[in-house]
Structure formats: structure tokens, C-alpha cells
Amino acid sequence: MSKTVAVLFGGQSSEHPVSLMSAASILRNMPEGYETYLVGITRDGRWYHYQGSIDDLENGNWENYDNEEVILSPNADHHGFYQLNSRTVKKVDVIFPVLHGRNGEDGALQGLCQLNGIPLVSCTMTPSAIVMDKEFTHIICEEAGIRMAKYLILHSYDKYDNYEKFQEVQEKLGMPCYVKPSREGSSFGAHKIHNFEEFLTFVNDAFRYDDKILLEEFIDGYEVGAGVMGYENNLKVGEVFEIIVSSDMYGYAEKYDGYKTVINTPSETLTVQQQQEVKEQALKIYQLLDCDLMSRVDFFFGSKGLVFNEVNSIPGFTSHSLYPASFKATGLSYDMIIGRLIELALERTKYE
Fold it and tell me: Which architecture does CATH list for 151-217?
């Protein structure tokens, strides 16, 4: 009997458009033997069962359909979605949340699925919450001796003189430095700061996305990393990717429009020994943060050697995204990656 996979897409975060692209890629590559039940989440948090085309999902037209409103039930006996019009429950075997950012990969949805007992293609609640918050990730990894950039935290409620704070940042982190929301992805609100004027502009922009932001030391070099999948002793690390950009940073346009970006998987610049170090550190950090299904672990590599950047617990799944590329380079096809993740979620639940 085929398993029913509920694919969640959209969501309330600024990464809503990225989710649509990722979900479309997953659906186009869903392996045989699975029935899909599509649930779209609007930017204002309404959930709908969608039965239209993948193309209309990807371009955002899915909201123009006559979709039935649904609720993900916390009731373990329901094991699925309550459909409001028909007043019926659609049972599902597993949920694949293709939701990036807030309310998707930050532990909120994971906690709900912990209540209702539905297997989830995602890390569980606690690691999801930790890796979503860059400050918490810093605290844990630095305590374990992982090399990271120096940083400062600002909250929206902090009272400070702008120029004095800029001088503190300049003294502790140097210039240029980066600012980014503490709990955001896809480089929304992330900027490279060179001077006081940019500090004022970019700090305000970062606060548009989160009430806690991270100011971080500039690390000279380029981005590398690897995907990890599995839990406990059932773990697999993908090949190392490298990102070469000619712009100031690997931002949204570079990630999703291919603007001035070269991505090599496996890396063409790192030696075999250096790639092995990336894989070992990626696995160490994955286990340190208690990740237990999938994550992409990102680093900088340059004059200071390998410096850990961040973890993405629901990484991008577009046709050119880094996580699937990391495992494609090991010989797995896209549909094999998806099938393996679904089966890992089902297997993990047996031992919870």
C-alpha cells in the first residue's frame, strides 16, 4: 500500500517564494509509490488543501483556486488534517514541510507534530529551534570549541546611542562586518557594513525581519559546506560544495537567480584533506546540535582556515539548491534523496 505524504508549502515567513520553488522541485521529483496531499499556507497563516498544477503552485497562482480550508489536527487519533467543508479527516503517513524560516523550521510545526505523532521530514522540535537562532547556535558551538566569527547581539528594545554602538562594533568586530536577523534565512535582511551610514541603514533593515539581530565579524574567504542526513548512527554526509561569488556576499539573488555565482559540487578548490575536514566538522556540528534528520552545514574557508557559519535544518530544495547537490554528487538522484528522507522520517518515528 502506498504511503501518503503531506507536502506543506508557502508559509508565513519572508521565505514564502523560496518555499514554492522548493516544493515544486520536490513534487516534480517525488519517487513512485507515494500519494501526495498538498497543503498550501498563505502569508497570513490560512491552510488549504491544494489540488491544482505544480506550475501554479510554483508561480503563486495556487491561492486563486477554490481550495478547501484544512487544519492540522493536534489529535493523535486523527493523524492528519481536518477538512472544514467536508468535515472529514484526511489521514497521512508522513509530513514533508517544505517551509523555510519562521513557523516552518523553527520548532513550531515540529512541536505540533510531536503532539499528533505524525512523522516529519525535518529535525525534531528542539534542534529545529536551536539552529534557527544564530545566537543559540553560536553559544553552543563556541562552548564546544568550534571556530566561529566574533559577534554581537542587538535587540529591538535595546537603548543605545547609534554612533557609540557603531564604535563598539568597529572595535570588537572590525570593518567591514555583517548584520543579519538572528532567526531568518535566505539572506533576507543580511548586509555587509562598511561605515556608519550603512550601519544605520542596514541595522534598521535587519530589524524589519527579526527583533533580534546579529552583528558578525567579516571572514575573508568563500563559502563551503555539506549536507547531512540521518539520525543517531544512521548518518550520511554529502560531498562538499563551494560557492564562488563576484559580489559582496552570497545573497538572495545569488542563491535563487544564479547572479554572479559559481557553485562547484564537489569542491574544485579544496584539497581532499580539506574536504574531509569540512565533512568531519559538518557531522560533528550536526550531532552537537542534536540534528536528527537533515541539515545543511555552512562554513567559510579562507585565510583563517575553516570557520563555521550556520546550519539550515530545512535547506532549499530547488533544482539548483546546495543540499540536493551535495548528495547528487555522491551518486544519489534527486528522487532517491527525497525517498530516503521520507523513509528516514518513518523509521525514526518507530524509535521515538
Answer: 2-Layer Sandwich (3.30)
